[in-house]
């Protein structure tokens, strides 16, 4: 019995010694003493809450434990992917944040349901298996490191897919020579020499249409990259206890900035592009540019009043009235580009809103969608075709007639570089030319372009966005919400635009939960910055927007991966 007790006492002694050594190595006595001293000094009402908060600050930094990819439905009821980040926090696994980004199969292309479902399944498989394994144990606050790993993973998959495609092409053999089809019909034979000469002139007058640049390949599953990157950024912001916009601003500027400004919201008023019911296809969006120096809520209130007046005019002057389309804007049925501008002119006049001084307009032309390659011309309206040079002339006439139009987005294809330069020469002093760099971030700059449009989609990481905007510093950069496959309740785009320090952000029309959530978030950020005394006011837009003397002509009353 004595020996047994002795053994028990020895075991207890060893256990006490081991415990003491464990506590010593982890500085438990010192921290307990310090915590108790602080507790006595502050004497809080919630004693245990104070102790819990004290020791929470001493916890090990959270590390990513796993990722989860979930199939969700976007704003249009189409399948999309959402990435969720889990971390070990206080020895327990905790869901930290989730995020989804817009999905596009390429510029302005829609996926078939089966193909979209396959892409989403691939993205879910990437997130749940290889990406989750790759990022396990990673510090979520190391955004650059995480994005570098994501981009490398994507590039490996991209090269593997490219090799497979090249092997398939080799197995099929060289393509057969296509039949040469003239871009325009030759003049019919005629005995009249004058008519023959006229036919020759018309045939030779047509310039050769440059072939389309190969579209950017969209790798199935690439949506996982952008979604995980954003989810990790939101996790890092949550861990550091700061809003996402301040977290991104610190990533871009390497430190927390002392002042931040709110990008001016560009609000889409009308849509009369290819999807509209009318013949006109040229104007994908007519966008309102408010004067700088106004609060977001004030801008929205004025725009809603203008929108109501536009609806009233349309309901009384057209057969079908006004209809709100999926993108939350008024869909109009027109035949000529002057008609929507006349409508806005009349509505502004009735609302005592000075067009050209209080508000200006931008036109998202989306011209690359309108090229008819069989004819080498842009079909700006049903049956109305224009060569690139003719389209430049039309823009010049339109901007001259409507001086309130101060920006054109994608007025031509990238391939028509000669016409970009010509357009810049004729309207560049009074109208800003912007091009979409979402898919061509590293392409040679277009002549005359002074602004760029950027969308957060597919494999674009947060670090990519920071890199792209830093490279284009000095030019007007606008963050645009895409009009399809937009997450319903994610307001991250507003935070991203503020954090990146962009000039403008386009969130769409003033309708629909997926858009108003983002506008409300922008208002909330503005109020936070104002309360903290770090809201920087931008009193002027970059030229040629709102230049002195740039007002509506009274005689023309009808009128933006480096990880």
TrEMBL record:
<feature type="region of interest" description="Disordered">
    <location>
        <begin position="169"/>
        <end position="218"/>
    </location>
</feature>
<keyword id="KW-0324">Glycolysis</keyword>
<dbReference type="GO" id="GO:0006096">
    <property type="term" value="P:glycolytic process"/>
</dbReference>
<dbReference type="InterPro" id="IPR020810">
    <property type="entry name" value="Enolase_C"/>
</dbReference>
<dbReference type="InterPro" id="IPR000941">
    <property type="entry name" value="Enolase"/>
</dbReference>
<feature type="domain" description="Enolase C-terminal TIM barrel">
    <location>
        <begin position="259"/>
        <end position="543"/>
    </location>
</feature>
<keyword id="KW-0456">Lyase</keyword>
<dbReference type="InterPro" id="IPR020811">
    <property type="entry name" value="Enolase_N"/>
</dbReference>
<protein>
    <recommendedName>
        <fullName>Enolase 4</fullName>
        <ecNumber>4.2.1.11</ecNumber>
    </recommendedName>
</protein>
<feature type="domain" description="Enolase N-terminal">
    <location>
        <begin position="64"/>
        <end position="248"/>
    </location>
</feature>
<dbReference type="GO" id="GO:0000015">
    <property type="term" value="C:phosphopyruvate hydratase complex"/>
</dbReference>
<feature type="compositionally biased region" description="Basic and acidic residues">
    <location>
        <begin position="190"/>
        <end position="210"/>
    </location>
</feature>
<comment type="similarity">
    <text>Belongs to the enolase family.</text>
</comment>
<dbReference type="InterPro" id="IPR047500">
    <property type="entry name" value="DD_ENO4"/>
</dbReference>
<dbReference type="InterPro" id="IPR036849">
    <property type="entry name" value="Enolase-like_C_sf"/>
</dbReference>
<dbReference type="InterPro" id="IPR029017">
    <property type="entry name" value="Enolase-like_N"/>
</dbReference>
<dbReference type="GO" id="GO:0004634">
    <property type="term" value="F:phosphopyruvate hydratase activity"/>
</dbReference>
<comment type="pathway">
    <text>Carbohydrate degradation; glycolysis; pyruvate from D-glyceraldehyde 3-phosphate: step 4/5.</text>
</comment>
<dbReference type="Pfam" id="PF00113">
    <property type="entry name" value="Enolase_C"/>
</dbReference>
<dbReference type="GO" id="GO:0000287">
    <property type="term" value="F:magnesium ion binding"/>
</dbReference>
